[in-house]
Structures are given as structure tokens and as C-alpha cells.
# Entry
Amino acid sequence: MKRRNPVFLNIGMAITLCLLTFILGQQIFGGKIHFKAAFNEVISKLTQNLDPEVYPQVETSALRRYIDLDPAAVNEISMYRNEDLMSAGEMVIAHFENPQAAKDFETAVQNRITSQHDIYSGYAPEQTALMENALVDIQDNYGLYYVGENTAGMDDAFISALKGGQ
# Structure
């Protein structure tokens, strides 16, 4: 009968334990989270600090004018834009059905950031700075694009609104 070497057995167990810890850590502390929050509840929490006179909701049919994204590509989408043409302030919240829709949303808002940055860089340095600090937060099934003051606070509100639906 052949005896197994306890050193190799211990090394194998240690490697397995490390892999399990890494995989569980990614699931708990990293990666994307699939949220069950209702879209209207997320919208309500994110817009409660936006003045509807300054940031009116953009009609879904006009969405393509601002970001190159087919509204039918996502489950639900809502955009709020500052009516002052000299202001870069805007916010888009989207609810996705699949990973491809999330990628399409991210690409569309990154293109929007680039084009708006180029426009404002010629004459509005404070708006250019806002574009440089634009928030894009893509979770598994939700995405937020926000240009304005206090992006960290808006991101915290976004995550809080999403967690409210768990």
C-alpha cells in the first residue's frame, strides 16, 4: 500500500482554500450585484434632490438626441437634463435585462462624456471640470450616468436606492 505524502496533501488543501476564499470574496466584496429594486423607486430616490424646474425629465423619444442609445435596448430608462444650454448637468438611469445592454449603455454614456467634454473645453472650463468628474456606475442590471455637483453623494444615493429593493 502506497502512503500519501502529507505535505502535498496540505499544499493541495491550502490551494483549494485560497481559491474558495478568492471566489467568495469576489461575490461578497467585488463584482456586480443584481438588484431587485423597482425602477420607479430608484428614480424617486435619485431625483428627490434634483429641482424639477432645473432638471426636467427628457422624453424617451428624445433620448437618442443626447446619448446614442436606442431606448428599446434597455428595460427602462429615464433622463434628466438641465435646460440651461451652458450647463453640462444631466443624469440618466437605466435598468438592464442583459449584460450586452449594460455594455451598450456604458459605451453610449462614455461617448457622451467625450463629446460634451470636447464641446465645453473651448469656452466653459467649469463645465469641462464637471465632465471630467462625470459619474458612470454600472451594476449588474442598473446603470447611472450623472454630471453635476457631488458625484460621490449621488453614487451613494444610487447604491442605497438599489439596496432598498433587496
